[in-house]
Amino acid sequence: MEERRPGLDPAVAEVRLAVRRALAGLRPGATVLVALSGGADSLALAAATAFEAPKPGLRAVALTVDHGLQDGSTDAAAAAAAKAEALGLEARVARVEVTGAGGPEAAAREARYRALAEGARAIGAAAILTGHTLDDQAETVLLGLARGAGATSLQGMAEASVLEGIALLRPLLGVRRVTIRAACAAEALEPWDDPHNADPRFARVRVRETVLPVLESELGPGIAEALARTAAQLREDSEAFDEMIDETIEDIVEHAEAGISVSAAALAANPAALRNRIIRHVVASEFHESLSRTQTLEVARLVTDWSGQGPIDLPGCRARRLGGRVEFTAR
């Protein structure tokens, strides 16, 4: 439990404890990079990191990514960096160009994570910290559910993952946004409210401002926590499946002349859930592409409902039945 000094606000204590736990696995003397937008979530994270990092001898650097998507973004980034310095952190700003497919949200996210990875490498950081909260997790699960993206999307975000070989930690993933706001108020921190976070053109904003409040109103409180628990349970299931795939795949996969092949009999002997995951894993690892459920089931029919059908065109590759094997070759 957090040892609170007299007068220490409970919200501040909760945020600091979450950060302390996330930093516990890092070696003394290591450097951490704090992703700081200037918003309440990242500002509370920066303040807690500034307080907790020196205890185990960690160096903490804040990086603000200026996406340049709106007027005044340069000033907002500079203000965020100044707040980091006032907290006792080293502060840096990275300007990025947001381009690419998938819409502005996806393009901005890709540019931001690329800048964080580059910034972390530049200072030799052992970990990157981001300010994602329990509410962000609930929103991610709802968006994945609406898109029919399957269990992988519904797993949401992990507390610890890897970004380009660097540990990516989300210390506040179990903390509610209302607690974050309370912590900022208690420490007299003035967050910057990004106008994009209130723009209903973005699906995540509509989920945050409309969908979740309606669910809370109609179904009762605790919806966000329930969605976060669902994500955690699905992630545990996925990790178990991944271990089963790792144990299975070496025995049933062979490299082909222009790709890779999988034993049809071995696929048929596995439950559908594992069979489909193996198919998706093979395509993702060999051709760096993702299959939809429809595409996955079409490939599975080469095993379960084989009647001489021809090759199936997939993203980045083609699948066909060749004797007792399903072969995947580059297109």
Automatic annotation (TrEMBL):
Q: Do you know which Gene3D superfamilies this protein is assigned to?
A: HUPs (3.40.50.620)
Q: Spell out the reaction equation it catalyses.
A: cytidine(34) in tRNA(Ile2) + L-lysine + ATP = lysidine(34) in tRNA(Ile2) + AMP + diphosphate + H(+)
Domain tRNA(Ile)-lysidine synthase substrate-binding as annotated: residue spans = 264-325
- Chain sites annotated for binding ATP: 37-42
Stored InterPro entries:
Rossmann-like_a/b/a_fold, TilS/TtcA_N, tRNA_Ile_lys_synt, tRNA_Ile_lys_synt_N, tRNA_Ile_lys_synt_subst-bd
Q: What class of enzyme is it?
A: ligase
Gene Ontology terms for molecular function: ATP binding; tRNA(Ile)-lysidine synthase activity
Q: Where in the cell is it found?
A: Cytoplasm
Q: Does the keyword Ligase apply?
A: yes
Tell me which UniProt keywords the record has, alphabetically.
Answer: ATP-binding, Cytoplasm, Ligase, Nucleotide-binding, tRNA processing
Ranges for domain tRNA(Ile)-lysidine/2-thiocytidine synthase N-terminal come to 32-209
GO BP, one annotated term:
tRNA modification
Q: What EC number(s) has UniProt assigned to this enzyme? A: 6.3.4.19
Q: Name one GO cellular component term.
A: cytoplasm
Concerning its family, UniProt says: Belongs to the tRNA(Ile)-lysidine synthase family.
**What domain notes does the record hold?**
The N-terminal region contains the highly conserved SGGXDS motif, predicted to be a P-loop motif involved in ATP binding.
Q: Relate the protein's function as given in its record.
A: Ligates lysine onto the cytidine present at position 34 of the AUA codon-specific tRNA(Ile) that contains the anticodon CAU, in an ATP-dependent manner. Cytidine is converted to lysidine, thus changing the amino acid specificity of the tRNA from methionine to isoleucine.
Protein name stated in the entry: tRNA(Ile)-lysidine synthase
| Source organism per UniProt | Microbacterium trichothecenolyticum
The record lists the lineage as:
Bacteria, Bacillati, Actinomycetota, Actinomycetes, Micrococcales
